[in-house]
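pinning this so it doesn't scroll away 📌
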Amino acid sequence: MGERVKNSAFHSCHVLDAKPDARQLWRFSIEDGKVALASEQRLLPAEPLPSKLVGKDWRSLWQRKLNIAWLPADHAFLRVAHLPASDFAEVLSMVELQLEKLSPLPVNQIVWSIEVLPQHAENMQTVVVVIAARHLVEAFLGKLESDGYQPDRLELPQLHQLLATRMEEDGVWIYPSNEGSKHLCLIAWWFGGSLQQLQVLQLPDSLNRSTLLVEQLTKAAWAGEMEGWLTVRPRCHLVADAATAAFLEPSLKQWAEDSVVAVEPLSKAAVAELAAKRSARNEAKANLLPVEYTARYQQKFIDRLWMSGLGGIVAAYIIGVAIYFASLQVLNYQQHSLEKEVASLSPKYTNAMKLKERVEVLQNQLNLKYAALDSLRAASELLPPDLSLSQLHFQKGQKLFLQGTAPQEQVSQLTDYNSALRKATANGDLLFSKVEQPRYETRGQTLAWRFTCDLNRTETE
């Protein structure tokens, strides 16, 4: 069942448990305010992480991914501090002032963070200080980077297990776990309604490790008695699976005088889901990822976006150029084919044009022949009896020249003859497009007349 998360800025969350012998990757989807397990993968050390899942690309701008990595518990030191109640920034400053006292290593060689527990008193609050050697953190991050995983948060899973435990009575809570061949044990001392001490023990891989655990518990109890917060024999709460509980419980019962309570631990998947929920709700504060790594990962992400964008532009340009040259080759091929076709048709076209010209010449000659016959017919048929026609010839096939004589008193017949020629037709069309006025001169008792007529004819197309 997914649990609703208010105002989460993330679309998905990945939790990686990178152990030397095997790696586990959980993917959680955050949709409509709910966190739900989407997939779980177990990978061998040589197997690559699924880059499509853990990698970030353009979609991460609007579908943000949260990558969480779990730091091995033996890399960290845990300290408990009781400070006046205040906001997180002021608590961080107060812890920084006490860091030299709390840290087992020089301050310039560590990475540290804090987790603020719920208040147990009106004006005081309990703070868990998580400290790790910087060179171990950087080596661990380098290994993750080589696997293609860039975490946004570096956490201790034991803290989530601790915060998920309901501590309603005083006692000591023991959380044994195995990381490869290493046997680790988180020990939390809860007295007076608050967490008093927190430590991570690394036990040897031997049959007497339960005895060594009891020795460490005895030393911690003496320290608690000296500090004043341990006043009675503590009750043991063993948060372990059945096999581990069966191995450790006899020694713990002897130490705690049979006061041992077995508690079923959360599964790794449940711890991963709790880590995803707390981070999505911005409740988890302990983050051992150095600030400079956060800035570097962000810059790498921006650089990848720029490079992928430029790569896309270059690819689009190359594709466009390829399409251009391909189109150019096609057009050149079509042009070459067309030129070959034109070249093959050129003799036929030349012959056709010559043939057309010959047809036009013959047609014009034929038209001119008919026009001459029609003109001769009209000139002779319309000629009045008193007029005589002495010359009739064509000028350049366009004009008809008429010349003749008439009695001096028959000027009107000459005018009528001229008008009749204007109206002369052939095949329904006017025979002449223009007939000029007759010109004449008197020669004794006769008139010598002449005029020209423009044939009404068009060139053959």
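📌 and the second one:
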Amino acid sequence: MRFGVFADVHFCSREDDGERFFSQSKRKLEACLNRFQKAKADFVVCLGDLIDGSEDSEELKAWLEELQTVIRGSGLPFYMCPGNHDRGGLPDADLLALLPGVPAGGYGSFEAEGIHFVLLDSNYQKDGRRRTAAVKWDELYLDEQQLQWLEMDLEQTDKPAVIFVHANLDSRLLEGERDPHVVVNHRQVRAVLEKSGKVSLVLQGHCHSGALTVQRGISYVTLKALVEGERQIPGLMVDCDPQKEEYRLEFFDGAETDDGETE
């Protein structure tokens, strides 16, 4: 079994800012999905920030409908964990229903070919409420209820598990302080993962430059953002061997050629 992963599309109608090429996001998403099709991926996962957020509910709906057409057109089963930019001027339940492939309630799990896959929602604030526009991107949490669910979910499976999440769970420092892309209660989350003994791979987004760490036997792989760079189309293919509990990761970050292919 193999699956494709990408992160941080940030689709919107804003002007490019020199680093984030919003105007290219849809085209780059199409190219990324096309690559997954050619690689015969069994399913695809978006690690959040599919859109860049809007307080205009009609604009937000239009963006999501446009991307849903692209995603459905790929014919690939699609899953997603919500990112901090996947917010806007809609009630939370309505917004989650519009985001393609997001589990009801924002987090959940599924199984395929002998592997347990978990989609988490890192968009909570300290008091346990879901993130609002007023909450900073660098002060995100997994709420206590979700942590309890995660512990129970991992206890109930007898299969190796892979975690998908937007904000980061590994312990990383930036200038001596917690890397702002890492959730505030990262130690609590990792304690649950480590206690289960079933998790060896965590795939995450949010940090646009990407990152890779291995902590207590768990690989934390942070994907580069699709929105960054005018022609770069970063993504990841993962081949799974559940019998050996092994995963082979193939990164691609090639620039597009003139015919729309990636190098």
